[in-house]
Design a protein that fits this description.
The complex is a heterotetramer of chains A (316), B (109), C (94) and D (503). By secondary structure, chain A is mostly helical. Chain A folds into two domains: 80 residues; 184 residues, no CATH class. In chain A, 71% of the residues lie in helices and 0% in strands. The longest helix of chain A has 29 residues. The radius of gyration of chain A is 22 Å and the shape is globular. Chain B has 109 residues and is an all-alpha fold. Chain C contains three helices and no strands. In chain C, helix 1 runs antiparallel to helix 2 and helix 2 packs antiparallel against helix 3. Classes of the chains: A mainly alpha (316), B mainly alpha (109), C mainly alpha (94), D mainly alpha (503). Chains in contact: A-B, A-C, A-D, B-D. Chains A and B meet through helix 1, helix 2, helix 3, helix 4 and helix 5 of A and helix 1, helix 2 and helix 3 of B.
């Protein structure tokens, strides 16, 4: 058994242990903190599966932004429920039944996964064959923005709908107001320092990730998530604030990604072989063009979703 | 044992663990955590499928990887909507567990 | 020359991991939150610093070396800020 | 039928397929961007256009007699994504366009932005999400790729859940949360099945998969997980718990869309899975289980509907029961048998007639609740005299649910009954008949007091135009009962025969 295998087994054990902690921990807040650590460990597993793009996404969105969202919520719930009167678990028989069901599902899945052919069927050669047409070097970016760009566009629409859904939970009187704390609500030296030092570098790294995403691991999702994190840090420090949900600029940026995507896609009918096709030779510049707007939209959508529905009237 | 096989076990176990949390825990936020665990288990299974599809000079099949990236973003959006619902429910009704509240069959008074 | 550089890397990384180990032991063994925090941050800063130092000769290019240094700097910044915030939260909650 | 040419090339009229999806997507983006009253205008403007596209798809399909195909981006499956329309998709597209438009027209009175305000919460979100439901359902009906369909059902979830709690009451929020958790759990299990199928066969294209799959454990596990996930979203007994509170407490226009269309989206995918992806794998045992669950749903849902004291809850439990009928077609569409075409037509007819009838009934119930300020069944005495048109719409919808002639519901049940007898499985027919009797029972509970001669005073009389919308939907459900034979031939376009012995 090589060292790498021992490390793999150790990592596997650690991931499962932390996952079990998030399920069985008594305190919801502790479980959420466990979940963030779990996400980071999981991105190491993704690296071991040679899926660096996914590892970056998992670390940035699956663990990072989701972590901010969940920790914020768990903190607020802890404040809201003084006594926390609903901690009672269901009866032992139900838990036993659930445990049996879950063990059964796990065993069946593990059995089936092991029985999958190895080496398995793959679209990698197909993806490689068409890579030249896209002018890209990163096949995953090619799948996301060319071969299956329709999925990606629709997933951007999912993000827009999530924003509408979250906003729909506002109290009526706050419609047109803003979420989160106003600027300068809680002045704090440490956070302000971080919010001043980190963003220049973070923005650089975010844009770099999108740019190299054409050829190397990275892309609009990962870069956008980093930009989103920078904005969230400045908001937490009270240096910036969420704009009003009725702000025309905010809405423009929210829909810019999917709108440009749809526009370029439909233009393919006139200028290329069909909808969501790129004209020969223009694939790469068009993909980068779409990615630029997608990054912008993601960078704004993620913080908007984390901030939740508007909670206060806008200060004029 | 290859990393992919090991990941297969982790993925399956995560689905089971998450499902257990989703079924048994009455607190909505814990149910959301359970859903996220199942989700990441499913994504890992995609990862194994991708790894087994290594070919044409790629260390893993890019198509399932792209699907996972899409899936992670969708899972985040779902968590955001669910959290917003939970917080709104607490605001309007106070602490509520999804188990104690019953399907109201009775006429509204 | 190469052997010397390798030796340097091995020693630096070994020391780096030792600090991580010590920090982890401190995190687990120290009695209260503030001293645990103390063990963790000291170990992290030195540990990451030494590991990055050990990896620098193997970076291959100037850009890669700069990225390694940037990683170290970012961890410093994040570690220092979060330690401050955690310590303040501990003090506030008593 | 040879599948290979279908998979690889766009057909004439194929462009309509992407247009049917992109049009409402553009509507969503434009509505959010321009905000306020524009959202309503954009939605109402796009609806007739979308209806035109749906009709055009049906015409192209009718002319060619072959499924329409569009390959997106010029990348053929398995690498790329194809959209396909068969007879079932086309009728669902038209139905969706009609019901969404009806719900939109009906909702104008409730979800109008109040004068003096540039933008209000409920109106803006309603109009955006209504278009989102429309877009995602069109994608569900047209998607030819299992992962693309995953995105479709997630879109549908995000569109449907907030509609449940637009009024911000605690009980609707908790109903929405429960609905969301069920739906998310359903999608994640669907996705798990997708991962396994890709791992086994290297494609997610429905037509390509149908050629490659064989009866092996991974297929059964994948199909089982996907079916379980979709059943949770369809609310088939015993996974129906989330449905009654969500559908009964949502605003009436939303209830109509949710009950008539949204649950049909995941049902459609179950049909796609077993009859599109797995037609070459004999699956009579699975069909039997689904039909057994369907039967349980019919009896259980109807009995619970009999006990409800609120009109909208009664209608919601009736949805639980009516969903059960949809699954009775499964054991009857097996093998190369003569009755298969009848059962297939019957199942689709049930889907369509229930959609129109249920939408009509929810809209009518909404009018009653608005006019009276409540929807307690025992206090509906005399409503027939003051709101005759509304009650007529409700009654006609009920006629179709009971399966009395002439109505789409009658035709659907008659076809299924005939098929079940020809197949030598009269048990399914017996379930249908008893379900019809129970439906008659719970509708009688509403109609008998409603038609009494008591004097009832309305808080506000309903608007004629809104009553007319409900009535038009109910009349469509009735009109389906007069569908000509050509209509049933149309439904067979693209149906793939399921392998298996004749029984």
């Amino acid at each position: 058994m090589s060292i790498l295998q021992i490390l793999d087994i150790g990592l596997a054990g650690l991931v499962l242990a932390v996952a079990a902690w998030t399920v069985f921990a008594r305190d919801a807040f502790a479980a959420v903190v466990g979940f963030v650590a779990y996400g980071l460990l999981l991105s190491l597993v993704w690296v071991r599966l040679f899926a660096v793009d996914v590892a970056l996404t998992e670390a940035a969105i699956g663990s990072g932004v989701t972590g901010v969202l969940l920790i914020g919520a768990a903190g607020r719930l802890r404040k809201l429920e003084a006594s926390g009167g609903d901690d009672e678990l269901p009866g032992a028989s139900l838990r036993l039944f659930a445990a049996a069901l879950c063990i059964f599902v796990t065993l069946v899945l593990a059995g089936v996964v092991l029985s999958l052919p190895d080496p398995g069927p793959t679209l990698a050669p197909e993806a490689a064959r068409h890579l030249a047409e896209t002018g890209l070097g990163n096949p995953i970016t090619a799948v996301l923005l060319s071969y299956r760009s329709f999925d990606t566009m629709l997933e951007k629409v999912v993000l827009v709908l999530a924003v509408v859904g979250v906003w729909s939970l506002a109290a009526d009187q706050y419609w047109g107001g803003a979420a989160g704390n106003p600027r300068g609500a809680e002045p704090d030296g440490t956070r302000a320092l971080l919010a001043q030092v980190l963003p220049p570098l973070g923005i650089l790294i975010g844009i770099h990730m999108v740019w190299v995403g054409a050829d190397e691991p990275g892309g609009a999702f990962q870069g956008g998530a980093i930009l989103a994190a920078m904005w969230m840090i400045t908001m937490m420090a009270g240096l910036t604030e969420m704009p009003s949900i009725r702000s025309r600029l905010l809405r423009l940026v929210l829909v810019a990604g999917p709108a440009v995507f749809v526009a370029v896609g439909v233009a393919g009918v006139a200028f290329a072989s069909g909808v969501f096709a790129y004209p020969t030779g223009f694939a790469k510049p068009l993909i980068l063009f779409i990615e630029a707007f997608m990054t912008l939209s993601i960078a704004v959508t993620l913080p908007v979703l984390v901030a939740g529905p508007p909670k206060r009237l806008r200060q004029q | 044992m290859t990393a992919a096989t090991l990941a297969g076990f982790i993925g399956s176990a995560l689905v089971g663990l998450g499902l257990y949390g989703l079924i048994t825990d009455p607190q909505p936020i814990r149910k959301i955590l359970g859903f996220n665990l199942i989700g990441s288990g499913v994504f890992l299974l995609f990862g194994i499928v991708a790894r087994k599809g290594a070919a044409a000079g790629f260390a893993a099949d890019p198509v399932p990887q792209a699907m996972v990236i899409t899936g992670i973003v969708v899972a985040f959006s779902a968590s955001a909507l669910a959290i917003a619902l939970v917080l709104r429910l607490y605001e309007v009704a106070g602490p509520v567990s999804l188990r104690s509240e019953h399907t109201s069959n009775k006429a509204e008074k | 020359m190469n052997v010397l550089l390798d030796l340097f890397s091995v020693i630096a990384i070994c020391f780096g991991t030792f600090f991580f180990l010590a920090g982890t032991a401190g995190l687990l063994r120290f009695p209260d939150a503030l001293s645990r925090l103390h063990a963790l941050t000291k170990a992290d800063n030195l540990g990451v610093g030494l590991i990055v130092l050990g990896l620098l000769p193997h970076a291959g290019s100037l850009l890669a070396a700069l990225k390694l240094v940037a990683i170290w700097a970012l961890i410093q910044l994040a570690g220092a800020t979060s330690a401050q915030l955690i310590a303040r939260a501990i003090r506030r909650s008593g | 039928m040879n599948a290979a040419p279908i998979a690889s090339a766009s057909t004439a009229g194929g462009s309509l397929l992407w247009l049917a999806i992109i049009l409402p997507v553009v509507g969503i983006l434009a509505s959010l961007l321009s905000g306020g009253r524009h959202a309503e205008r954009i939605a109402l403007l796009l609806m007739p256009t979308g209806f035109g596209i749906a009709i055009a798809i049906a015409i192209f399909l009718w002319r060619s007699g072959q499924p329409l195909v569009y390959v997106i981006g010029g990348f053929n499956p398995p690498l790329g994504i194809a959209l396909r329309a068969d007879g079932f998709s086309a009728v669902m597209l038209v139905t969706t366009a009609l019901i969404v438009a009806a719900a939109g027209f009906y909702a104008r009175a409730i979800f109008a932005t109040p004068p003096g305000i540039t933008e209000a919460r409920a109106p803006l979100t309603f109009w955006i999400l209504l278009q989102a439901i429309w877009a995602s359902l069109n994608l569900v009906f047209l998607g030819g790729d299992l992962f693309n369909l995953y995105v479709a059902i997630e879109l549908l979830t995000f569109a449907a859940v907030p509609l449940v709690c637009l009024d911000s009451r605690a009980e609707t929020i908790s109903a929405a949360l429960r609905y969301l958790l069920f739906a998310l759990c359903g999608s994640v299990f669907y996705l798990l099945g997708v991962a396994l199928l890709y791992g086994a066969y290297g494609t997610l294209d429905i037509v390509l998969l149908s050629d490659r799959v064989s009866s092996e454990p991974v297929v059964w596990v994948a199909a089982g997980l996907m079916t379980a996930g979709l059943l949770a979203k369809t609310a088939l007994f015993p996974l129906h718990l989330w449905l009654p509170p969500a559908h009964a407490n949502a605003p009436a226009a939303c209830s109509a869309v949710l009950s008539a269309l949204v649950v049909k989206g995941s049902f459609f995918l179950i049909v796609r899975l077993w009859f599109g992806v797995l037609p070459n794998v004999p699956h009579e045992a699975v069909s039997f289980i689904l039909a057994a669950l369907g039967s349980a749903a019919i009896l259980f849902g109807s009995v619970l509907a009999l006990q409800q004291e609120r009109l909208k809850l009664l209608i919601a439990y009736s949805t639980v029961a009516q969903i059960g009928y949809l699954f009775l077609m499964f054991p009857l569409v097996q093998g190369p048998n003569l009755w298969v075409a009848e059962a297939w037509s019957g199942g689709i007819m049930q889907t369509l007639s229930h959609a129109f009838a249920k939408a009509a009934m929810f809209l009518a119930a909404g009018l009653i609740a608005e006019s009276l300020g409540h929807d307690r069944i025992r206090d509906l005495r005399g409503i027939g005299a003051v709101m005759p048109m509304t009650l007529f719409a409700f009654g006609l919808g009920g006629l179709s649910l009971m399966g009395l002639p002439p109505s789409g519901g009658f035709l659907a049940k008659w076809l299924l009954l005939k098929a079940s007898i020809e197949a030598g499985r009269p048990i399914w027919g017996a379930v249908m008949l008893s379900g019809g009797l129970l439906a008659a029972g719970y509708l009688y509970r509403v109609l008998a007091p409603a038609l009494s001669s008591d004097i009832l005073h309305l808080k506000a009389p309903p608007r004629r135009s809104r009553e007319a919308v409900a009535l038009a939907l109910a009349l469509t459900a009735i009109a389906l009962g007069f569908a000509p034979k050509a209509f049933f031939d149309f439904l067979q376009i693209g149906r793939v025969a399921v392998a298996g012995g004749s029984s």
